[in-house]
Structures are given as C-alpha cells and as structure tokens.
C-alpha cells in the first residue's frame, strides 16, 4: 500500500502539491506536454521560475467547475463502482515518496473488489487535429498522467477516464458536447509504467542535486 498525506484545506494542499512529482508533471518529464518542457519544470521545482498561475483561465475554471457534475453523472451511469472522493488527499509511492498525486476519485469495482482510479477531463475541440487526439485513444499528456498514478501503487488495477469534449459550431453558433469513456488496464502498460518511474527517478536526481537536465523538446 502507498502512503496518504491527509490534508483538509486547499492552502496546505497547494504547498504539498508543489513538492515531489505530480501527475501533471509526468508529461513534462517525457517531453509530452506541448505547453511546458522538462527544463521549465525543473526550473520551477528548483525555485528558479515561478509557475504560471492558470487558475483564472476560462478553460481551467470550466474544467474545475465541471468536475463535480461529471463525477455525479459517472456515479449514475456506472453503479458497479464505489466512488470515493477526497479532494485534498495526496497519495505517495511508499518507497519513492516524490511520486505523488491527487486523484479525481478512487474506485472499487463491487463485483471483483479491484481498486481503480477515476480521471475527469474537459477539452475544447477547435480543429480536426484536436479530434484525432481523442480518437480511440487519449492525448499523450493525459496518458502520462494515468501512468504516473499507476506508478503510485500497484494495487490500482485500472483507470476509468471520462472526457467531455466541447465543440463550437461557428455556422450555427451552437455547442456540441461529446462524452467519451476510456478504460485502461494497468497490466497492459507495465513496461510504460516502469519506463516512466525510471525517468522520474532521474528527474528527481536532477532536482535534488541542483543539476540542469538536458532539454527534451516538447512534442506538439
């Protein structure tokens, strides 16, 4: 089992969140975050750069406010799962405690008693390439995040990811919402999880030793 840092308020959660490597950091480390490089992340972790405050961006506020209604819809649509939500708990790998994260929810499949993770994503679709990122797959940065959460504890056997995709029709001025559900089994990605853990160990070494890592250009 992993360790859990029980936090009951957002201010303390933000302090602990900045320490270690979180789910959104994994894609940066692998060069799979189109908005931030591994070097940018290292500069933030070592205090050389202040992370950009994106909390007031419309898409971020929308995603935050939409999460609870989407979680409740998941509960209605998937009664075969027990859904546990602790908004400020930080889960840490027992041996590598810098590998940590906060889940959108934890799941227990009632029939099998297997434990899993629930993730919620909202995204605006503005061009064809945006649709392609969600066609029979999830975008690379979100996939890295799921792998990171699997790395926290091997008892998490699956991840259910719910995505709400918003598309604006410029001709009719109407909004189309497309909901997608993805099921990812841990056992299908064991080599990917191992690779990510090794890369995060290396990245943590660069942080602890204050050594600049070689730049990995983000994949756009």
Characterization of this structure:
This protein has one domain (3-208): Lambda Exonuclease, Chain A. Helix content is 36%, strand content 25%. It has helices at residues 10-17, 23-29, 38-45, 58-77, 128-132, 140-152, 190-208; strands at 3-5, 81-84, 90-92, 100-101, 105-109, 115-125, 156-169, 174-185. The chain has a 5-stranded mixed sheet. α2 crosses α6 (140-152) and α6 (140-152) crosses α7. The mean pLDDT is 93.
Order of helices and strands: EHHHHEEEEEHHEEH
For the record, what CATH class applies?
Alpha Beta
Mean pLDDT, nearest integer? 93
How many strands in all? 8
Structural class call reads: alpha+beta
Rg of Cα set: 18 Å
Percent of residues in helices: 25-40%
The parts where pLDDT drops under 50 for at least 5 residues are none
Distance between the termini: 36 Å
- Strands side by side in the biggest sheet: 2-5-6-7-8
By CATH, the topology is Lambda Exonuclease, Chain A
Q: Give the biggest sheet.
A: 5 strands, mixed
Tell the overall outline.
Answer: globular
Q: How many independent structural domains?
A: 1
- Provide the CATH architecture: Alpha-Beta Complex
Strand percentage, roughly?
Answer: 15-25%
What is the overall number of helices?
Answer: 7
Quick overview:
With 220 residues, the chain is an alpha+beta fold. The protein has helices at residues 10-17, 23-29, 38-45, 58-77, 128-132, 140-152, 190-208, and strands at residues 3-5, 81-84, 90-92, 100-101, 105-109, 115-125, 156-169, 174-185.
